[in-house]
């Protein structure tokens, strides 16, 4: 099965730590500059997903959504959620840990695109 979103081991480890602090979580990848270009992680239920958001899948039992406009730009790629040292979005829960989530990507192969259709 081809996944539209996946995560590094470091991301999965940080997610487990954050769940012990905040409970169930969710991700949203919006568009724009500054915080809007980073994947934001929220306690589940604190961010309202709307009709213009698309569910991409789950990483570490954590749902991941992307805005429809961003999806149109990135639909040909697999999103790989990573974590690096630094300060991320001020509303994303990983900030106090001195970490920030980062979206990396790779282009789907022809076979993967066919499987996703």
Describe, in short, the structure shown.
The chain has three helices and seven strands; from the N terminus they run βαββββαββα.
Task: Indicate the topology.
Elements: E1 5-7, H1 9-22, E2 25-29, E3 39-43, E4 53-59, E5 62-67, H2 68-74, E6 77-85, E7 99-107, H3 110-116
Parallel strand pairs: 1-6, 2-5
Antiparallel strand pairs: 2-3, 4-5, 6-7
Description:
The chain is built from 3 helices and 7 strands. The mean pLDDT is 91. With 117 residues, the protein is of the alpha/beta class. Helix content is 24%, strand content 38%. The strands form 2 sheets. The chain has a 4-stranded mixed β-sheet with strand order 3-2-5-4. The protein has a 3-stranded mixed β-sheet with strand order 1-6-7.
Structural class: alpha/beta
Please summarize the sheet with the most strands.
4 strands, mixed
Order the strands across the largest sheet as they lie in space: 3-2-5-4
Q: State the order of secondary-structure elements, H for helix, E for strand.
A: EHEEEEHEEH
**Total helical elements:** 3
Low-confidence segments, ≥5 residues, pLDDT <50?
A: none
User: On the 0-100 scale, what is the average pLDDT?
Assistant: 91
Radius of gyration: 14 Å
Rough shape? globular
Strand runs, count:
7
End-to-end Cα distance, whole Å, is 12 Å
Strand content: 35-45%
Helix content: 10-25%
